[in-house]
Amino acid sequence: MSGPVASGAAGRPDAFGARLAEAMAARGPLCVGVDPHPSLLSAWDLPADVTGLERFALTATEALAEHVAVLKPQSAFFESHGARGIAVLERVLDTARQAGALVLLDVKRGDIGSTMAAYAAAYLADGAPLAADAITVSPYLGFGSLEPALSQARRTGRGVFVLARTSNPEGHAVQSATAAGDGTVAQSVVDAAAERNAGAEPLGDVGVVVGATVKPGEVRLDGLNGPVLAPGFGAQGATARDLRRVFGPELGAVLPASSRDVLRHGPSPLALRTAVRRTRDELAAVVETARSL
């Protein structure tokens, strides 16, 4: 079962933002996806069935969970194998947790009312079989529709990452549209997340997703006071230097996400760990440079 670490005089769980900041300081800011895409299964000479899924996902998790701050399983690749695939995902969550990694479950859920509450119970409630440290959510039924997930996460010491300005080209038309009032839709999402994070130290629990491939200055993050998940790093083309260019002084709160660029080095656990160390060291050098400017 996933669950935050108990702490504090009041016996409440550690807030996700604080646990994430601690993990990033200890292990670096890299987030590695566990994405059992059929093309990667093939590259690892594994069958595109649940046995291949299990070998791929557990090999990657066992090799990497001790060496990264965050693992990000992509739920869809497990769901596509039905109940047996979900059982593998439960094992991935448990294995990663035992190795000390935080788990960000990439589910991108977004709905209203009781349905959103059910999603929150599935992924953010204590004792839920698929409970993770944080999940990705979509705000495009209105940021307020996320309230059940935000409230559940706050109660149980977990976090959410809200899609704001994503790295996929198809998102540009919606996310860069002018919102009611002033600014873009993406900026309105960031601003709403910032309101939830006000006063939190060292980081709030409501993160946003902003692609590493966006234009510098396209989204203002200086008031967010929360983490930024940055897809697009690695196989999608963004480099460590691009991260500094896009995120500037906010780079210290950025969690670059890489999946294929690391996973393509499997199935050798040693090769996977070597790829992570190389990427982690590159990111650390860029973050240190940004801090010194």
From TrEMBL:
<keyword id="KW-0665">Pyrimidine biosynthesis</keyword>
<feature type="active site" description="Proton donor">
    <location>
        <position position="108"/>
    </location>
</feature>
<dbReference type="InterPro" id="IPR001754">
    <property type="entry name" value="OMPdeCOase_dom"/>
</dbReference>
<dbReference type="InterPro" id="IPR011060">
    <property type="entry name" value="RibuloseP-bd_barrel"/>
</dbReference>
<comment type="similarity">
    <text>Belongs to the OMP decarboxylase family. Type 2 subfamily.</text>
</comment>
<protein>
    <recommendedName>
        <fullName>Orotidine 5'-phosphate decarboxylase</fullName>
        <ecNumber>4.1.1.23</ecNumber>
    </recommendedName>
</protein>
<dbReference type="GO" id="GO:0044205">
    <property type="term" value="P:'de novo' UMP biosynthetic process"/>
</dbReference>
<dbReference type="InterPro" id="IPR013785">
    <property type="entry name" value="Aldolase_TIM"/>
</dbReference>
<keyword id="KW-0210">Decarboxylase</keyword>
<dbReference type="GO" id="GO:0004590">
    <property type="term" value="F:orotidine-5'-phosphate decarboxylase activity"/>
</dbReference>
<dbReference type="GO" id="GO:0006207">
    <property type="term" value="P:'de novo' pyrimidine nucleobase biosynthetic process"/>
</dbReference>
<comment type="pathway">
    <text>Pyrimidine metabolism; UMP biosynthesis via de novo pathway; UMP from orotate: step 2/2.</text>
</comment>
<dbReference type="InterPro" id="IPR018089">
    <property type="entry name" value="OMPdecase_AS"/>
</dbReference>
<keyword id="KW-0456">Lyase</keyword>
<dbReference type="InterPro" id="IPR011995">
    <property type="entry name" value="OMPdecase_type-2"/>
</dbReference>
<feature type="domain" description="Orotidine 5'-phosphate decarboxylase">
    <location>
        <begin position="29"/>
        <end position="275"/>
    </location>
</feature>
<dbReference type="Pfam" id="PF00215">
    <property type="entry name" value="OMPdecase"/>
</dbReference>
